[in-house]
């Protein structure tokens, strides 16, 4: 049981459902890249909402289950990228370095560092905004051949010779 069972239930089974759905590998790769890129957005708790907006805006140009699955997979990585995005934003703007010390944490918790915190959030957002086209493009290039291989290997054969593969909603 444990983590292996969780990984199988939460990642492998949904991925196989997506692959067996018959979607185009380009659509799956772009949707997964989009979901992952949004999934590492540096403000925790808003990525699902942002994915919903992207799905609504893109409509048939994205595969909603793949976007949401990639967003879910990106969640643990999201926290690890907040500091690099923050530092990237600081470099871009030439802004002050936000100290990540216990004293800074005390200031944040007591409400004495509100301006510095807002500035650091803005820097993290700017860092993500600068990095996101590279994340999106790199993931698409890496995931496209992966999805082509996975589709060839795991796609369900049609039930009859005239049956069309399922199209994304």
Automatic annotation (TrEMBL):
It comes from the Eukaryota. PANTHER family: E3 UBIQUITIN-PROTEIN LIGASE. Keywords: Membrane, Transmembrane, Transmembrane helix. The keyword Transmembrane applies. The chain crosses the membrane at residues 33-59, 66-86, 125-151. This is DUF2062 domain-containing protein.
